[in-house]
Amino acid sequence: MEAKKIRLTREKETYLATLYGKAMDAAAENSILGDRFAADATARIDYDFKALKLPKGGEVTLPMRAWHFDQWTRAFLSANPESTVLHLGCGLDTRVYRIDPGPKVRWFDVDLPDVIALREQLYPEREGYRRIGASVTELSWLDAIPGDTPVLVVAEGLVMYLHEKDGTALFRRITDQFPGGQLAFDGYSGAMVRLVSRLATVRGAKVELVWGVDDPHELEKQVPKLHLAEDVEFLTMPRLVERLSRNWFSGAMYGVMGRLPFYRHLIRHLRYAF
C-alpha cells in the first residue's frame, strides 16, 4: 500500500512521536512491547520520523507504559470476557490489535475527529470495534454506548491534559452509566505537570498539562463510586529501571532516585474499581 502523505500541525506531532517510540522498540533486538502494528503504521506514513524529538529514553518509557496498560487490559478481559472497553485519548495507539479481544467485547477508541480520521487511513476495521471522533469531555458521545456490561476505561497519556472538573465529570458519568468496572490511567504529580509544561515552553512546543494528581485518594472523594485498587510508581518499576540503566553508574543513580518520594510520585499508574 502507498505511504500516506500526512501533514500535521506541530501539536499533532505528539501522536507520531508516541507511535515512533513503539516502532523503534519493535525493531529492537529485545523488544518490550513487540508492537508490529506501530512499525507497520510508521512504514506507511510519509514523514521524517527521525526529525521527531522523542523524550530522552522515550524508546523505552513509551513501550513500557503501553505494556503495563496492556497487562491490566488483558487481566480485565480475562475476568470479564463479555465487557466494554473505552480507550480514551487513544491517539495512534494500536492496543485493540495487540490485545485482539474476544467476540463478546465491545471496544471503542475515542479521540478528536482529526485523529480518528488518521486512524481510519492507517488501521483496518474489525468485529466489535468502533472509532468515535469527539472530545472525551463532551459527554454526549457516551449516549450511543450501551451501559449493560462491565467496562474498562483506559486513559493512557490523557488525564494530565484534562481540567480536573472535566475529568471528574467524565468519570462520574461513566460510573453512573455502567454496572461496574475499572478505570486505569497514568497520573502526573503537580510537580511533573509544571516541569513538563515548562520544558515544552522552552522548546517552543504548545503542550499544556493542567491536572496533577498528588494524592490518588482525592479522586475517590470526587467520584464516590471509585476506589483505588492499585497504585504503581512507574519510574521505579524494576523492568523499566533495568532497561534504562545503561551502565553501573546510571543504575546506581536510578537506585538513589528511587528512594526519594518526590521522584517516585512523579508518575503513577493508577487503577480504580467501581
UniProtKB/TrEMBL annotation:
Record has Methyltransferase as a keyword: yes
InterPro entries, A to Z: Ppm1/Ppm2/Tcmp, SAM-dependent_MTases_sf, TcmP-like
Native organism: Cystobacter fuscus (strain ATCC 25194 / DSM 2262 / NBRC 100088 / M29)
Matching Pfam families: LCM (PF04072)
Keyword Methyltransferase part of the UniProt annotation: yes
One of the record's GO molecular function terms: methyltransferase activity
UniProtKB keywords: Methyltransferase, Transferase
Protein name: Polyketide synthesis O-methyltransferase
Family annotation (PANTHER family): S-ADENOSYL-L-METHIONINE-DEPENDENT METHYLTRANSFERASE YKTD-RELATED, S-ADENOSYL-L-METHIONINE-DEPENDENT METHYLTRANSFERASES SUPERFAMILY PROTEIN
GO biological process, one term: methylation
